[in-house]
Amino acid sequence: MKNLFSLEGRVAVVTGGSSGIGEMITRGLVKFGCTRVYNISVHDPLQERTSVTYIKEDLSTLDGIDRAVSQIEEKETHIDILVNNAGRSAGAKSFTEYAEENWETAVDINMKTPLFLTQRFYKMLTKSYKQNNRLAKVINISSINGLTLDQDHSYGYHASKAGLLHLTRQMSIELIKDGISVNAICPGAFPSNMNQYARDYPYETAKYIPVGRTGTPEDIVGAVVYLASQAGDYVLGSTLIVDGGVSNTR
Amino acid sequence: MSTLFSLDNRIALLTGGFTGYGWMIAEGLVEQGVARVYVADKEAFTPRTVIDEEEQAKLNDIYKNIIHIECDITTEEGREKLFCEISTLEPFINILVNSSLYNAEDWDQVIKYNLEAPIKLTEKFLPLLKASTNPDEGTSISTEQLYGKIINISTVDGINPPQISNFAFSSSNAGINHATKSFAVQYIRHKIVASSITVGLFNTTPNEVNPANRLQVTQRIPAKRLGHKDDIVAAITYLASRAGDYCVGTHIVLDGGVSEIRG
User: Fold this and answer.
1) Sign of torsion over alpha carbons A147, A153, A156, A157
2) B129-146 burial by CB neighbour count: b if 16+ within 10 A, else e?
3) Of A31, A218, A234, Cβ closest to residue B223
4) Residues of chain B contacting residue A231, judged by C-beta atoms under 8 Å apart
5) Is the ipTM of this complex over 0.90?
6) Which of A38, A155, A157, A226 is catalytic?
7) Exposed site from A6, A35, A168, B43, fewest CB < 10 Å?
8) Which bin fits A179, alpha (ψ -120 to 50), beta or left (φ > 0)?
9) Which residues share a beta bridge with A182?
């Protein structure tokens, strides 16, 4: 049987992979055959894993991005997969109290970082196609809050996650010319430090999800592996919603 | 995690016939592990032939698991006939792929074929899909699948209408995507997940298209190529397997980026 979903021999980078969805993705990439996975995060990993190299950097600044990229450039000639997962909600406040700081924190890490990190990795990504004749894959992890609104007043988070989807479209049209395919995933409620409610109250959270449960590692890994492998080669600039049906309900 | 994308031992029903995307989906599902694929169509099909003998032997094996059922799914009688025949052969079906796509001037005909038929057929097969999530004890096929899967296929005309008069075709394609969301929300209580795939420009004939035409067509596609069998088989496999269980009402656009650009 043809294995359309193999990631054998790939070199991958995941941002924000020390915990939550990023950690699930990191483990999945190793499981599906990636030779080496780099995790760039401002936090220490909850648990260090073999086959994963941990780089501690703050990616919300261009200096931090450049330092992280330099460390990977020293070890690799190319990258096959880049998962821009690092994100922050940066606080929810009423409309009149919402501050510039909240806005900038969210917009920087959720939208600026994926753009400039991909830009800094651009040459290494183009080599995936040049060396191995396969598309490099950039996967931007957005959120269902980039599609529909929840009750939270986190203006910067919602707007930046929506912005990331449009950024994904534009990057995809430009970068495909050089053999790089860019797509986005909108996860729903997955237990994590960022979604503490889903982590601490899975049963209460599940009441609002049509499928009746919160997301699992298999759910997010399935989506990432689909897009990252040959299987997803004809998906371009797309938004893949993995939310158990939440965004389809009123 | 190692069986995340497995379709081993599943039973699938494919509507819309064997031409177009049908042959790719039917062959691909068997290649990915599906035990039997039933293809509902008015016309019988001829198994594909290739020059390479080894390849032909593999194809012959695949076609042993693809079963044609003659029926017209645009009529209630045809849908009933299909349901009765499959019910006598299988205790359940795990995967229903609605890929009926028909393009013509006549509004009523197109809506009947592209929208009414898949919706009414899906409703009719609800009992067999429900049965897949809780197979009766003693059936010969065991399945790890927790959810029945409905996958509706449409084209990019349902996202961006082309600059030609095809109101019925575009509207019916948009309609089936929206119907998918309704099915998703309504059927999830039965442990049935509905999702959709919108396809762009594919090479649907097993043989090469005219190279000059191909160049002209592919220039308009950001990916600079037509879609092929692996692309659609992979998308269906992702949604139909455990990997796609959380994709309730999810819509995959499989078009090499063509719907993202204007003009």
Assistant:
1) negative
2) bebbbebeeeeebebebe
3) A234
4) 230, 234-235, 237-238
5) yes
6) A157
7) B43
8) left
9) A138
